[in-house]
Every structure is written in structure tokens, then in C-alpha cells.
Amino acid sequence: MANSRTRTSRRQFLLAVGAGGAATVAAIGAKTLPQKQQAGAKKDRTGSGYQLSEHIRRYYRTTLV
Amino acid sequence: MSGEPTPVAVSSEVAPEDRARGEFYALLARLWYAAPDEGLLRVIAGAPDATAEGEHRGLAEAWRELRDAARRTDAAAARDEYDAAFVGTGKAEVSLYSSYYLVPTARERIVVALRDELAELGLARTGATHEPEDHFAAVCEIMRHLIGVGSTDAALQLQKKFFASYMNRAYNPLTNQVMASKKTSFYKYVARFTKAFCDVEAASLEML
After folding, report:
1. pLDDT in tens, chain A (65 residues)
2. How many angstroms separate the CA atoms of B74 and B120, rounded?
């Protein structure tokens, strides 16, 4: 395991620059699919909650789905 | 690429700060993949401020400027701009392919290496597309995927390696070209935001 001090300082850094908080951009991520793709998009979920966007589906086939 | 891709180990343990990073990548992938539609522009326009402390204000400021630019932009203008700057017939004004910025020649070697790495990760291109895998939007989407796998040491090291190989030396020249182009306006702010976020990524992955 990476030592917890490394993890803590990385987390603090991400929070300090505004990249670690869930309030801003995080709220947008789920809404980022183009509308025309959303219409016919099939939502595939993995165990991680990661949602394959139509975009990555166009590029890749993954063994997760 | 040989054999079947191996399944990706999936963990539900994604730390909050990594989940947030994944959302940044999702937004970047979307914005570089195609021009924003009206719905996305309005969501960005109405988004709250990012909070930042002390001297680390670059990302928060770039975010605020992108939001202000979204308020001034409509979907038709964004689409025209995207097509003029990044699509074009023949050589595009600005290339969105990472390999273009990574090596002067033999770009296909980068694409082949990337394809092999993706196969190891259990990802492969669908037969339906002929786009090379090194499109900046695709590379962002892969980072998002790698982050979604979990926040274990191994997962973070994989993110660090992928970022170092395919993003770290590409994002500065790419975003600089977008900012310098006469054909961009909204995308200058997308580029600034992208650069600010990638600066944060480079610094935070270096801490691992």
C-alpha cells in the first residue's frame, strides 16, 4: 500500500485546487452525453458504477459489458 | 493485438477525489469529442463556482471563464467553430490526435502501442469505427475508465503510467494551438480549462 501520508497530501492538494470536490464539475459529468446520442443510448453499468458513454462505445468494445 | 482481451478487475472503492477527477475527464472527453449541444452549454453556464484555496487558483479561474464563455455561446456557433477548427477537409487547423504532438513522424507506432495497451486493459476498438484510438477525447475517456476501476495503488499507478505516456507531453502543445488558432473562440476556454486540469493531474499523479 502507498503510505497514507502520500494519499492524504494528494487528496489535500486535489481539494485545494478545486479538483477533488464533488460540487462543481462532478455534477455535470452525468449530463455530458450529446442529446442525439442520449436518445438511443443504451446505458451499460459495470460494478464500479462507471457508465460507458456512447462515445467510448463507438471506439471500444470492452469485456466488461 | 492477439488473443482475447482480459476482463478488467472492477472495484467499487473509488475515493471521492478520484470520482471527481473521473467527472472532469468525462466532461473533457465530451467537449473534445464534439461541439456541445444547447443542453450542455446551459448546464455549464449554470454551474456553480469551483472552490480553491490560496495560490492554487488556476483551475477554478479556468472553470469560471469556461462557464462565462458558455453563457455567451450557442450550439450552432459552437458546432461551426468545432468543424472549422478540428474537422476541416484535408488537414485540420488543429489536430486533436495526441500522437501528433508526441512524435514528429511514425505516429502510427504510438497508435499501435496504445492499441496494445488497451488490449491488455481489456478494451478494444469496435469494428464500427475507423477513428484512431489516440483522439484526445478517447484518451480522456480511457483515463475516466481507469479511474472508475478503483483507487487502489495498482489502479493509480496505471493511471499515472497512461497519463505519462499519452497525455502529459501532448496536452500543452494541443491546448496552446487551440488557444492560438484564429478559428476558435469558445474552445479557447475549453483549452484553458483542459490545460489547467491536466496541470493538476500531472502534479497530483507525480505525488504517487
Report:
1. 557 888 888 988 888 888 876 455 655 654 554 433 433 333 443 333 333 444 444 444 333 32
2. 41
- Please tell me whether the overall predicted TM-score, pTM, comes out greater than 0.90 for this model: no
What Å distances lie between residue A64 and A61, B8, B121, B122, B143, CA to CA? Answer: 9, 7, 11, 8, 16
Give the helix/strand (H/E) hosting A59: helix A54-59
Q: Which amino acid is residue A60, in one-letter code? A: Y
- Which secondary structure element, helix H or strand E, spans residue B19, and what is its range? helix B16-33
Joined together, the cell numbers standing for residue B6 give 482480459
Distance from the Cα of A31 to chain B's closest Cα (Å) equals 7
Residues 3-62 of A with CB under 8 A from B: 6, 9-11, 13-36, 46-50, 53, 55-62
Partner residue facing A18 (CB), from B27, B60, B138: B60
Residue the block writes with cell 476558435? B184
Say if the ipTM goes beyond 0.90. no
